[in-house]
Amino acid sequence: MNRVAAPRILLSASVPLPSRDRVYFETADVIAIRDAIRALTIVILEEQASLIFGGHPAITPMIRLQIAQTGTRVGDRITIFQSRYFEAVFLEDNSAFERVELVDAVPGDQETSLLNMRTAMMAGSFTSAFFIGGMDGVEREFEMFRHLHPGVPMFPIASTGAAAARLFNSDERFPRTYPQLRDEISYLTLMRSLIAIPNLPPSGNIRGSQ
User: Fold this and answer.
1) Where in the chain are the domains?
2) Could you write out the DSSP letters of every residue in 53-67?
3) CA-to-CA distance for 133 and 148, rounded, in angstroms?
4) What is the pLDDT of residue 210?
5) For 132-161, what is the mean pLDDT?
């Protein structure tokens, strides 16, 4: 089977905060989250793929730093989505990216503003989606992506803990078919193998279902 020329990949990730639900914070591995984000960014650049993610105060700087270290111009291959609801606290890191998509806010309504941003972020076709660390927002994005893109491989990186581990453990097909999502901590090896998966025949893949 011919390889897909330019994989288009969604990233849903965050670093849990102790001030939020401790069920996420207590299992999060911040170093693993950082290393997984770094590895995913490297492989995105290697594969000349496209990465789409929602701006986050912990995740955006990690991706910006990795891109800066490579000295690569990414153009529209990396796209950040942000809701104007949070415009007053946007990071300066956003200016390092050439493509930042701003989604209009619903005044006074954070939840609907986030829903609209996520809907815009998940528009179009994808070859896979990665879920790293995270809190309830990552779980919501997992369910939303599964509903919008049935048939697209979804990979909760359980070794990063938090929401990703909860998602991995919520479906027995993940431990049975992809134990490396929990066990492989060489993240470059893991990301290279997973990004190749959508280009293989579909037998044996875990895919989103409604």
Assistant:
1) 15-197
2) EE--TTHHHHHHHHH
3) 22
4) 31
5) 97
